[in-house]
Amino acid sequence: MPLAGPDTDLAAALLALWERRSGAFIRRADVIESALRELRSGSLAEPLREEAEREAHKLAGALGTFGLPAGSELARELEEGLAPGRLSHELVPRLAETLLALQREIARGPAVPAPARAKVGPREPDTGLDLPTSIMLVTSDGELAGRLSAQATARGLMMHTAEDAVAALAQVRRDPPAAVLVDLGADEADGARLDLLERLAEDTSAPAFALGTDDSLRGRLKLIARSDAGFLHRATSAAALLSTVAARFEQRGTIGAEVLALDDDPEILAALDTLLRPAGIEVTGLHDPERLWEMLEETTPDLVILDIDMPGVSGIDLCRVVRNDPRYHDLSVLFLSAHTDPETVRRLFASGADDFVAKPIVPAELVGRIRNRIQRARLLRELAEQDTLTGVPNRRKASVDLARLLLLLADRYEHPLSVAILDIDHFKAINDLHGHAHGDSVLRMLGKLLLQWFRGEDVVGRWGGEEFMLGLYGMGSDDGVRGIEALLDAFRALELPGEEGVPLRLTFSAGVAEYRTDAQDLQGLYRAADEALYRAKQSGRARVLPAG
Length: 548
What we know:
Helices cover about 50% and strands about 15% of the residues. By secondary structure, it is α/β, with parallel strands linked by helices. The chain folds into four domains: about 10-110, Up-down Bundle (Four Helix Bundle (Hemerythrin (Met), subunit A)); about 135-250, Rossmann fold; about 255-385, Rossmann fold (3-Layer(aba) Sandwich), CATH 3.40.50.2300; about 395-545, Alpha-Beta Plaits (2-Layer Sandwich). The longest helix is centred in the first third of the chain and has 34 residues, at about 10-40. The protein starts with 7 loop residues before the first helix and ends with a strand.
């Protein structure tokens, strides 16, 4: 029987794995044969019966994954027959026949997959590791373009903007982006942009999104009638918009994730690696349940795969332990099991499992479920950790990053580290005199500047209100002051139109504290930097002062 799933390359990879490891399946069948021989000769020792039942259970879970579903069914019959209380001398002849059929299935092995037939027509674009990292935005709204561009920069994406639908279509054809966003603006009956969405469905495989205000069912049905574009409300924060877009185009390529899989069957772990690696999912296999805690801390996975039945411990109990630890409360947990009865499934989800995939594994189902689970978890985490107005991490996320990454590296390698707190000058007056919309624009401008200005190993976060926090890795207090003074000059050079066209004068004050010199822990650093900020405010604002 051919291997399951439409992906011939994946089927060929599983076949190659089978050829390398088929001896393990033969040895498992030999254990079952030894148990039946012992029973036929007079008596069967309990340890051998347990081993034979366990090997039949493993065969039932693994054979179908490798393209032998009939073998899985035969192994499951053997597992049921070898169960305590059911095994008897009278049952031996039928079990022996079932075992013989199973051995023939294993000897036959999976069918060689047929070569994939070439498609007739134009070649589809590659959607693997060379996925474009640019996004096309069609809009005449400069403020919207600025917000989305800042978010794109923060994610390492390029944002190309076009006002004209015809020019946008020409550029998309010339240089296909990862996604296209078409702003319908206030007039959602704009024929040219609706036409553009329709043409995009014909001319590019990149996902398209319409930005509009009519999110009623009738409005969305009208959009679907013209194109396959997704709908995003214009009032949605830039962070949420970009998270949704990124999740969609990541489905076309690899997702760069790590999975920790715990199973006492090495063949299942090898199959998981073969199935998930092409999707960009690295699998760390673990046989010993006692090492689960150690490996969770060492690998920090995006998702954990557990088996129910393992020697000495239940996967359900392990899931409860994971869920009771605050560090892993939100970690995605997926179960693989040959047990699909309603009571077992109920117990799985009661223990805190997020999802369940039955053995034997259907490759497309497993990859799709894991990919979707990881992407949804990432989206929710981004929304929970990001300040939606400015696009920078929020206070909680910045504090965690600073504590886990910077202090760890600073302590381990004895590198300098400074913490700075920035506060926009006269921010209340900006809100009072020019309105909160102007105040929001000032915050977004500084957030965008911070994301552009600092390196990936630095920490940037909105501390609250008009305050921002920076963690500067590799910088002592003097270097930190000089770097933030340069940032102050760049912020001062930005222009925001005020009343009667007079630009607002934008500045901030800042305090900088150095780890070990000014304080020995994070709370001490925050206090020292805040005191320096207070002195900067008191001495005239628009300046950066060190602590001490």
